[in-house]
């Protein structure tokens, strides 16, 4: 009988925000599959679970997901990941594929989970805390209340698109906003929404920044912007 | 010195999806504040934590949040909740206010947290797994990949509004969709999106239903609909 592939969301970067289910599965696991940008590079997801899970003696299988946009490169990396995982499943071992944040929200792992499912193996998904929820918690903001509408975007398309979403939604979360911050700042300024925006940068890390958009800052990969239009009247 | 109010998301209805942080805080707590619809009624949030946290000997403070829409009634319930909590904080006790799912996503507790913060007490927010993430996990769906846009709505306004969002977004989550399912089904049918919709009803409960929209079913309060337009090409 083949093993089961578990897709496990390990949360936003804080070992204490692992769920009890994830903790127990990972503690009991023999094989943990870990996404890396390049073989041999450290994995943030692995570092998160190390805070609470003893990984000594476990087999860590690195899956290389290069930061590429070419379909052929991505396709090849997903195929290779599926091959590595299925080899373990064929031996009857369960594999724990860990991923930052939640599994369903902008995770590369969903491609691999789907591939493995299409190959006929059983999969299970264990949700994790999405980074925008922990960001909102750290910033002390609500993302949606009552009848409010929430939009979540992971990458900014045309400026006109982001303008439209800011017009249509009460609350907007822009993930991975770092590289486009200059453009976002301009749009927010034009709409008079700069005061409604909170940046959450490198949440949980030493150089964490939570505060207003500040054009003089450098914003890295882990930058989330929350724009909250609604003002509450109690 | 006053105590701290912790707003703790306990996840979607599965004690194993509590985070380690929530588990530790609740295990160490003396006072747990629990939202109920009516005094004396059972609290889903409390039942969730009971699965893993021993609450014997702890003080359980019920906060009544009636299912009303009148501003004055809601305002009165938030004031009363703040009064009860601040009485404990004044004695130097920390209070753990538990809430279903995540704290920032459509939680009644945010009103109370804000009120307590305005009164000058310290607050901390501990995020939890939002119900739509666990719903997606149970249904084996991704909510957003790559450049996809995700919209989350907790209540349906005009039909024209939901039509617009279905046009503009790749993936749409409709929470608390139960009462409006007939209208939603009509809209989805007109747009040819019925096949893209998955209902997650009473997730984790005995009468859980995950599957296509089925007009012959009764849908209760804990009904989430995920509409996923994007089809992945690998």
Overview of this protein structure:
Chains A, B: Pfam families: TP_methylase. Chains A, B: Belongs to the precorrin methyltransferase family. The structure is a homodimer of 234-residue chains. With 234 residues, chain A is an alpha/beta fold. Chain A has 2 domains: 5-126, Cobalt-precorrin-4 Transmethylase, domain 1; 131-228, Methyltransferase, Cobalt-precorrin-4 Transmethylase, Domain 2 (2-Layer Sandwich), CATH 3.30.950.10. The first copy, chain A, has helices at residues 20-28, 44-50, 71-90, 109-118, 131-139, 159-168, 181-190, and strands at residues 5-9, 31-36, 59-64, 95-99, 123-126, 149-153, 171-174, 197-201, 209-211, 223-228. Chain A has a 5-stranded parallel β-sheet with strand order 3-2-4-1-5, sandwiched between helices. A 5-stranded mixed β-sheet of chain A has the order 6-7-10-8-9, with helices on both faces. In chain A, strand 8 and strand 9 form a beta hairpin. In chain A, helix 3 (71-90) crosses helix 4 (109-118). The radius of gyration of chain A is 19 Å and the shape is elongated. The termini of chain A are far apart. Chains A and B meet through helix 1, helix 4, strand 5, helix 5 and strand 6 of A and helix 1, helix 4, strand 5, helix 5 and strand 6 of B.
